[in-house]
Amino acid sequence: MVFISGAERYDSPGQILSWDDSRGEFKHPIFWASIFTKSYKREFSISDEQLALVSVKNHKQAKENPNALSNKTYTIQDVMNSKKLTDDLKLLDCSQPCTGSASIILATEEITKKITDNPVWITGIGQKTTSAGFTKNETFSSMESTKLSGQDALKMSNHTIHDIDVAEVHDAFSVCEPMALESLGFSDYGEGMDMINNLYDTNNFKINPRGGLIGSGHPLGATGISQTIEIAQQIQSNSNKRQVDNANVGLVHNMSAAATSSTVLVLEK
Amino acid sequence: MSFESELSKGEFTIPECIECKKIVWPPTEFCSNCFGEVCLKKGVFEGKIIEFSKQNETYFCMVEFENTVKIMAKMLKTPKIDQIVKISKCGIINDNYFFQVN
What we know:
The complex is a heterodimer. By secondary structure, chain A is α+β, with helices and mostly antiparallel strands. Chain A is 36% helix and 17% strand.
């Protein structure tokens, strides 16, 4: 049995990957996020207003999460009127670095059965690093490492994406949510925002029920564990007002270094 | 002589393997494909703008050279997708590479 903790301070230097020299002087994450956003909007004819819905949805869902950094809700106009960071990115499109920690217990099957009547099993794991540098991405409108790690995790778990009842995806910036949904196979390429629109309109918390990174805050070293806790609690029917109905199979998507590296877990009862 | 030492003198070079002729990016001393010795091609290289955005009055662009080497570079005039550009300034300041194209 092992106890695993992730922790981060709001001012951690780890937010900026100083070793990725091909980014030149543009090493802050807002620059790769701006390139992703511009590329995604260009390729799929998506507007800033459409993408703003990601932030609106995830802040709304975070209101039901007592551990979220903020319980404020916003309108699309609030997102559009928030501080302009670049031509393609507003402040409310971004997750907020913060101080936080999260912990889980991992145990063997034998020990798990002794210590709980309500276990959550990891049935699939996928991890893929496509390169060490943002500029080596082949495309800037999808996440290749997410696609490959998702396929591996689903294959190991003997599930397809259609079996997933609830998921936490790595919405570091608004554009990351539709890109992740598309790369994981939840929707076709260019149709991630249609899915997000539908979820919002029907008050369906299936994607990022705790509010994702945008709604909950992003303590980098703790985020992956926090995502995993959320999906475990969903599967244990222990998520109170943000509980997704019939959550039997869940997925956790975490990525880093401008989507050059992704990890996907499949969890289930 | 390394990519970084040339860059620090304001010269942008393209690393290429002497053995297999592949461009080695990011730059390393030995080829990432065949471990062959790497040389630095000098010249005025043409790059293509793949994507760009803007912060305040500064455009930042993803620029690709020789279908392999991609860098983030500053540009003062309005870029266009697929526009052909050349390095106008480059170097290392405060341990950070910088590139400017026009």
